[in-house]
């Protein structure tokens, strides 16, 4: 079960086990979804329309983008920024799931609310993701920079990127895009945990007990559904975050088409609407939804699987 379960009769797993399960689930999932993440970031940063009818558009579809990246940059391009991305996933998963467990337990012990309510999972999920974001945002900026650059590379290694960014743009560069990230991550993660819990309850309601044999498949499908719903509701803020994170990185983007400079979140939103129209707010939505379905589904799948590995007897209560 994700989160504190007051009906578990003292069988909730330890904080260390929660953090370990969250870290491993993030690590394994990141390896699997990295290619989609790279394509999604490329789409989000492209000013031109994602359409064949725009001759200036470098990318216009998932398969076309995949072929072009493979042809121009080689297969390793799909794992650009994989080291910071793994650090991001491991750290984020540990902090998020541990915070969520502690917060839901606090709600159960300090208030009259049911720790498994939709609203409780929404608030605790949002707060836990905000804490995780503050902890790992510098790594997220590094991951975005690596995924955004083409060939020849501006940053050769992770150390080179950190030193260069610090010297040329100052320490605040590692927190670029933090405002839209925090604004987006609270409802996004809140919806993830809430929808995941709601879909699991719906699954129990729809299927009779004898039809609920494969709990791992249930966790994967419910996580995927939660990821798609959450991402759709909060997507434009993710796009703004990516645009702001590559500010000052224009020299690495010249081969991809037009570049823009933004003064902040509101200016970014205004320019996107003015130059690219309302559909510009949802550039890269297709690979993002595919990625959200796979990443959220597998994160919850691996998390529950590793939790059941620590304590097999708990699986029956999830």
Describe the protein in words.
- By secondary structure, the protein is an all-alpha fold.
- Helix content is 67%, strand content 0%.
- It is built from nine helices and no strands.
- The chain has helices at residues 15-45, 62-73, 82-110, 118-148, 158-169, 178-206, 215-245, 265-276, 285-310.
- Helix 1 (15-45) packs antiparallel against helix 9, helix 3 (82-110) runs antiparallel to helix 4 and helix 4 (118-148) crosses helix 6.
- It is globular.
What key phrases describe this protein's structure?
67% helix, disordered C terminus, single chain, 318 residues, mainly alpha
From the alpha carbons, calculate the radius of gyration and give it in angstroms: 20 Å
Secondary-structure class = mainly alpha
Give unreliable regions as ranges.
Answer: 313-318
Helix content: 55-70%
Largest sheet: none
DSSP strand content: under 5%
* First-last Cα distance: 4 Å
What order do the SSEs take from the amino end to the carboxyl end, as H and E? HHHHHHHHH
**Which of globular, elongated, flat, extended, rod-shaped describes the shape?**
globular
Tally the beta strands. 0
What count of helical segments does DSSP give? 9
């Amino acid at each position: 079960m994700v989160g504190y379960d007051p009906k578990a009769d003292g069988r909730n797993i330890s904080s260390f086990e929660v953090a370990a399960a969250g870290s491993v689930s993030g690590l394994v999932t990141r390896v699997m979804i990295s290619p989609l993440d790279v394509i999604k970031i490329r789409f989000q940063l492209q000013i031109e329309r994602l359409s064949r009818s725009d001759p200036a558009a470098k990318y216009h579809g998932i398969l076309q983008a995949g072929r072009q990246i493979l042809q121009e940059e080689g297969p390793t391009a799909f794992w650009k920024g994989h080291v910071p991305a793994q650090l991001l996933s491991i750290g984020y998963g540990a902090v998020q799931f541990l915070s969520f467990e502690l917060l839901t337990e606090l709600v159960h012990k300090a208030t009259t609310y049911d720790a498994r309510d939709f609203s409780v999972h929404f608030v605790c999920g949002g707060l836990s993701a905000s804490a995780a974001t503050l902890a790992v945002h510098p790594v997220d900026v590094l991951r975005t920079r690596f995924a955004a650059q083409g060939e020849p590379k501006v940053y050769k290694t992770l150390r080179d990127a950190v030193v260069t960014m610090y010297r040329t743009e100052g320490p605040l560069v590692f927190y670029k895009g933090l405002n839209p990230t925090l604004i987006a991550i609270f409802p996004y993660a809140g919806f993830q945990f809430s929808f995941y819990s709601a879909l699991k309850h719906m699954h129990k309601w729809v299927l009779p007990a004898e039809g609920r044999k494969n709990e791992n498949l249930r966790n994967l499908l419910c996580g995927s559904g939660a990821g798609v719903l959450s991402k759709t509701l909060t997507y434009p803020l993710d796009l703004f975050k990516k645009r702001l994170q590559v500010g000052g990185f224009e020299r690495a983007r010249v081969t991809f088409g037009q570049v823009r400079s933004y003064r902040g979140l509101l200016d970014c939103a205004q320019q996107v609407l003015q130059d690219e129209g309302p559909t510009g707010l949802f550039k890269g939505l297709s690979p993002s939804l595919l990625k959200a379905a796979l990443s959220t589904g597998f994160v919850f799948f691996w998390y529950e699987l590793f939790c059941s590995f620590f304590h097999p007897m708990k699986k029956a209560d999830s």
